[in-house]
Amino acid sequence: MADAVDVAIVGAGAAGLTTAIFAARLNPNFTIVALDSAQRLGAKILVSGGGRCNITNVRVTPADFFGGSPHVVRRVLSAFTVDQTVAFFRELGVPLHVEDDGKLFPDSNRARTVVDALLGEAERLGIRLLTGRRVTAIARDGDQFEMGVAEGAAVVGDAHPTPTRPPTSASEGRRYVARRVVLATGGLSLPKTGSDGSGHRLAQALGHALVPPTPALVPFVLSGDFHRPLSGVSQDVELTIRAAGDKPVRLRGALLWTHFGVSGPVVLNASRFWHRAELEQRSVTVSASFLPGDDFAAAERRLLELSQSQPRLSLQHALGTLIPARVAEAVLQELGIAAGVSLAQLARESRRRLVHALLEWPLPVTGSRGYNHAEVTAGGVPLAELDPATMESRKCPGLFLVGEILDVDGRIGGFNFQWAWSSAWVAAQAVAAAK
Ligand SMILES: Cc1cc2nc3c(=O)[nH]c(=O)nc-3n(C[C@H](O)[C@H](O)[C@H](O)COP(=O)(O)OP(=O)(O)OC[C@H]3O[C@@H](n4cnc5c(N)ncnc54)[C@H](O)[C@@H]3O)c2cc1C
């Protein structure tokens, strides 16, 4: 016997939970079930924003996203705006406040309040939240869907996973039948929270293509040893990513040196460009300007002014007034320029070599920390395969897709959650209206 419901939501993360909530509010008569492979819901929300959950941003535009058509992204974002997001969470008892770069966080500064509010609202609305249910197959049968579900399925991160042989077809194992299915399985980032890419395979089996996924918002691993002694140092830089065939991408922000390479917001934002070029086997380099905003002339002028105002200051100390002292020391050592000479004593040739190095410091990227450390997945189901007015599949009517499973990835700052909330809202309108 199969459980029959009006709407089955596969994946109860940010996008799946809110789709369920919005749909249940719009159509209280519907039976809605949300099936999730994880034993505990909300794991990714709990670790988001350093445990504080950066829910959205005061200003969200298509320029903050990559992947599918900006026109579609704009349309989806404008259907459920930042103001609506703020009002929705306020209504759930989660007021938000603005921080640096327009990021909005809960006043509680605890992601737990976000998860509790969403789960509480889902429960109030009578949504059936079923955990430990991994959807392994979805088959369309006339005007309904049949889902094969492995119960108690092993999900990395569960304390005591119960291994079961997953059904290999929709007619095996525990079955659910639904008139509408929403795929909200996320991508591949942080797989221990449950998003292991199985949603991509479910979508493909229902006729969808897949823009090849790569990690995004992920730290870089560097070769060599330059970064090692700098571990823990943070500085403002401008990164330039040069990929064959593309215009150079320049990004400014904080870089954090680590024992494995580099991290920090500007690095995370750069990672998708590096990964996409690598995926397409295009040559790609990354360099950092330690004097962001300066061109060669401006940077050289700064050094000359320093040498005039403080002629006896050692080169290392002079440089330490412009960039972190440990980075200044490491740069001079790497260039083989004596740290103890004064700026005034520095030969013109060495000064120019130093300026050039400060503006174009190569970062020898060999890879990234991968999906286990990526905040988001680039690539996914192409937006062109959906109706942007409803998020309904053009390949498989009755199927809806929301959140990170789609070929949309935002930069750091609350944009990925806003995509989850907005796409959920659009899908919920259509799902709830369905006869
Ligand atoms: C460390 C970290 C920090 C982040 N911080 C922020 C932030 O502060 N602000 C921001 O905007 N974004 C942030 N993000 C990104 C954001 O969390 C995601 O973009 C967002 O959670 C995606 O929501 P989703 O519902 O589409 O997917 P997910 O949250 O990944 O949820 C997918 C759900 O589907 C379930 N699932 C998968 N496959 C199956 C299956 N076959 N059967 C049943 N269930 C399945 C999973 O168990 C999971 O619960 C962060 C991400 C990480 C990893």
Question: How would you describe this structure to a colleague?
Answer:
- The chain is α+β, with helices and mostly antiparallel strands and 435 residues long.
- The protein folds into 2 domains: 3-214 and 371-433, FAD/NAD(P)-binding domain (3-Layer(bba) Sandwich), CATH 3.50.50; 225-369, no CATH class.
- It is built from 12 helices and 23 strands.
- The strands form 6 sheets. Strands 1, 2, 7, 8, 9, 10 and 22 form a 7-stranded mixed sheet that branches.
- The model is unreliable at 154-168 (pLDDT under 50).
CATH top level label of the largest domain:
Alpha Beta
What profile does the largest beta sheet have? 7 strands, mixed
* CATH H level, superfamily name of the largest domain: FAD/NAD(P)-binding domain
Task: Quickly give the CATH architecture of the largest domain.
Answer: 3-Layer(bba) Sandwich
Report the span from N to C terminus: 24 Å
Q: What spatial form do the alpha-carbon principal axes imply?
A: elongated
Low-confidence stretches: 154-168
Provide mean pLDDT, rounded.
Answer: 93
Distinct small molecules bound, one entry per kind: flavin-adenine dinucleotide
C-alpha Rg (nearest Å)? 25 Å
Helix-strand category: alpha+beta
- The number of domains is 2
Q: How many β-strand stretches?
A: 23
In percent, how much strand structure appears in the residues?
25-35%
- How many helices in DSSP terms? 12
What would the CATH topology of the largest domain be?
FAD/NAD(P)-binding domain
